[in-house]
């Protein structure tokens, strides 16, 4: 139970809204600094609006100064855990407090946009001064050049390579080592010095590829990385989207004009039911990626499906080659369902990590985790996540409650 | 043979003269009818879609108002105008709504409304099975951001004769007008923020909607 992970973007938001991560975040992979639209989303999401709190003036305002020249933001996250007692702990030496409080992330961002096509962003996670995972980056900074859509975007600096899905909960096992589930192979906010190209010529296809140093990767996979000095990453993602509905009739994808049975004037509609109709969408992801250096390699495949105002399902698998002697297979499935309000989501997640030492009789080491909980946005800028977690390793099973607080703007 | 030919020709001529005009709905009302869009029937909202490489943005434009003069016996005589307020347009994100309505985009303060005014209705085909429905070509002036351009769109018109059930919501006969068309932002001098059109906002916008009105 070492450093709890900081968290950034919510991938399911992209699947539900049908907007890519870049709609709200400066970096196209998502996470980190938000742009004015991301800020606006945080500013206007909450069960209790500003006007009911008597601070209507907070309903407007922007994190930017001088137009968009300078933008500030922050992620502040902490978790309070009610720890259970590990059952079946063979070592018999687990000593855990009843409650554990962990400041996970105290990360301010500053972004500068000297010209329209250039973003320069820097941030520092002050929470890592207290505790950090091996290989966890304490800071992130990059320059991003973006031109017309037919040209790729270039990002250079201290950045997280784009591979798999960048989840916000790094207690997930998808990037974990089953033999050491609380010390992920790829730690939270993992970043390296490097550069990456991103290319999205059409709305449903994106390709990212980059080259990086390996200073932080060596802290978790030194034996596998060996003498290699550089890491590589590549990800391909297709994101088909089906847009439907609107005013009870078809949108551009539904000709409607040939529907001879369409004779509905809505005379049976109740006024309350008549929402005036608005187009919805089914949003999907299908992708694969590779990240590696030396004898270390991680291959991810993922699938996501989301529907506006309903929820999302994300499934991801990862094969990890941690040197010639260790191979791992990690899998995760997460369902998020809107629980009646835009500010309330119900989440359930199941995952498993397996690591096998090859050419031995030791067999595979397996860790499983099940998480159920809610995402609640009581008012603007604040997310609260009560969750119940069950962690099952080969040595023990432990149940615990967590309550996470996240302020983001 | 000559007699047969003349008779056949006469029959064809008679058919052409006496056949009903194709722009005629099979409803009881005749003569020009004043139609007003009425949100009590259904909310009158236009919707739109911007498709660009970085994202697709679905939006809505509620609060559409308008008046028409429609003669069910001759739809080609239809005139009218609809007005769409810019202030209420939605993009799914409040900050982005503000951008859309702001000076860099549609500039709601200077140009509070988008309008469409009918100039000509032609090529009407009445549904043979449902005589109360017809498809027509409507040419009009679409005015946005202070610029008016000729736009032609396919429109489907449905006419519902009023009854006791419909009268509970709105009096008279009801009419539904369904349409879709495409506009180019550049045609209306909507430039937006530098670098956004073509990347995050499409150069063309698909617009569609169903509008509901009634006679008195």
Notes on the structure:
The complex is a heterodimer of chains A (409) and B (216). Chain A contains 3 helices and 18 strands. By secondary structure, chain A is mostly beta strands. Chain A has a 16-stranded antiparallel β-barrel with strand order 2-3-4-5-6-7-8-9-11-12-13-14-15-16-17-18. Residues 1-9, 247-262 and 271-277 of chain A have low confidence and may be disordered. By secondary structure, chain B is mainly β. Chain B has one domain (22-214): Lipid/polyisoprenoid-binding, YceI-like (Lipocalin). The model of chain B is unreliable at 15-21 (pLDDT under 50). Chains A and B meet through helix 2 and strand 7 of A and strand 2, strand 3, helix 2, strand 8 and strand 9 of B.
Topology:
The complex is a heterodimer of chains A (409) and B (216).
Chain A: H1 11-17, H2 36-43, E1 64-65, E2 70-82, E3 99-115, E4 118-124, E5 139-145, E6 153-159, E7 192-202, E8 205-213, H3 218-225, E9 230-238, E10 241-244, E11 280-293, E12 296-307, E13 311-322, E14 326-341, E15 344-357, E16 364-376, E17 382-392, E18 397-408
Antiparallel strand pairs in A: 1-2, 2-3, 2-18, 3-4, 4-5, 5-6, 6-7, 7-8, 8-9, 9-11, 10-11, 11-12, 12-13, 13-14, 14-15, 15-16, 16-17, 17-18
Chain B: H1 2-18, E1 33-37, E2 45-51, E3 56-61, E4 65-70, E5 79-85, H2 94-101, E6 113-126, E7 133-144, E8 147-160, H3 164-167, E9 174-184, E10 204-214
Antiparallel strand pairs in B: 1-4, 1-10, 2-3, 2-10, 4-5, 5-6, 6-7, 7-8, 8-9, 9-10
């Amino acid at each position: 139970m070492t450093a709890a992970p900081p968290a950034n973007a919510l991938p399911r938001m992209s699947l539900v809204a049908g907007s890519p991560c870049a709609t709200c975040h400066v970096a196209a992979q998502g996470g980190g600094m938000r742009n004015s639209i991301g800020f606006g989303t945080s500013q206007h999401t909450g069960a209790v609006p500003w006007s009911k709190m008597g601070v209507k003036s907070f309903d407007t305002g922007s994190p930017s100064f001088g137009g968009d020249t300078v933008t500030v933001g922050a992620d502040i996250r902490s978790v309070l855990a009610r720890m259970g007692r590990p059952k079946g702990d063979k070592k018999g030496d687990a000593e855990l407090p009843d409650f554990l409080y962990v400041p996970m992330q105290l990360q301010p961002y500053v972004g500068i946009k000297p010209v329209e096509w250039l973003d320069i962003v820097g941030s520092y996670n002050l929470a890592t001064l207290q505790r950090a995972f091996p290989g966890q980056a304490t800071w992130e900074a990059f320059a991003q050049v973006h031109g017309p859509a037919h040209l790729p975007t270039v990002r250079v600096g201290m950045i997280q390579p784009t591979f798999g899905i960048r989840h916000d909960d790094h207690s997930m096992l998808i990037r974990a080592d089953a033999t050491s589930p609380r010390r992920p192979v790829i730690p939270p906010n993992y970043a390296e010095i490097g550069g990456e190209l991103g290319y999205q010529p059409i709305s449903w296809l994106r390709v990212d590829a980059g080259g990086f140093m390996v200073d932080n990767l060596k802290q978790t996979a030194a034996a596998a990385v060996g003498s290699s000095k550089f890491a590589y990453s590549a990800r391909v993602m297709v994101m088909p989207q089906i847009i439907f509905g609107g005013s009870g009739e078809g949108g551009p994808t539904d000709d409607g004009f040939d529907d001879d049975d369409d004779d509905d004037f809505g005379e049976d509609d109740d006024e309350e039911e008549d929402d005036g109709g608005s187009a919805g969408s089914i949003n999907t992801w299908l992708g694969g990626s590779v990240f590696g250096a030396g004898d270390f390699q991680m291959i991810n495949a993922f699938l996501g499906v989301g529907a506006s105002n309903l929820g999302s399902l994300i499934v991801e698998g990862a094969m990890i080659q941690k040197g010639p002697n260790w191979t791992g297979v990690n899998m995760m499935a997460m369902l998020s369902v809107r629980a009646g309000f835009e500010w309330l989501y119900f989440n359930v997640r199941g995952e498993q990590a397996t690591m096998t030492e090859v050419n031995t009789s030791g067999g595979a080491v397996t860790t499983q985790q099940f998480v159920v909980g809610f995402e609640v946005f009581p008012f603007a800028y604040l997310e609260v996540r009560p969750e119940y977690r069950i962690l099952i390793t080969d040595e023990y099973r432990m149940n615990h409650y967590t309550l996470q607080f996240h302020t983001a703007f | 043979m000559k007699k047969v030919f003349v008779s056949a020709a006469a029959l064809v001529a008679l058919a052409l003269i006496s056949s009903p005009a194709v722009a005629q709905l099979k409803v009881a009302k005749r003569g020009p009818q004043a139609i007003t869009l009425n949100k009590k029937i259904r909310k009158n909202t236009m919707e739109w879609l911007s498709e660009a490489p970085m994202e697709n943005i679905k939006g809505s434009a509620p609060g559409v108002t308008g008046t028409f003069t429609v003669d069910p016996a001759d739809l080609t005589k239809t005139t009218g105008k609809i007005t769409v307020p810019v202030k209420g347009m939605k993009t799914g994100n409040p900050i982005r709504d503000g951008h859309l309505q702001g000076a860099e985009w549609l500039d709601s303060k200077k140009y509070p409304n988008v309008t469409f005014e009918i100039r000509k209705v032609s090529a009407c085909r009445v549904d043979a099975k449902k005589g109360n429905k017809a498809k027509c070509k409507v040419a009009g002036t679409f005015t946005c951001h202070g610029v008016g351009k000729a736009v032609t769109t396919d429109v489907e018109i449905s006419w519902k004769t009023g009854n006791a059930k419909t009268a509970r919501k709105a009096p008279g006969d009801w009419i539904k007008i369904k349409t879709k068309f495409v506009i180019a932002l550049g045609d209306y001098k909507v430039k937006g923020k530098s670098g956004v059109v073509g990347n995050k906002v499409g150069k063309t916008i698909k617009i569609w909607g169903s509008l509901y009105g009634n006679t008195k």
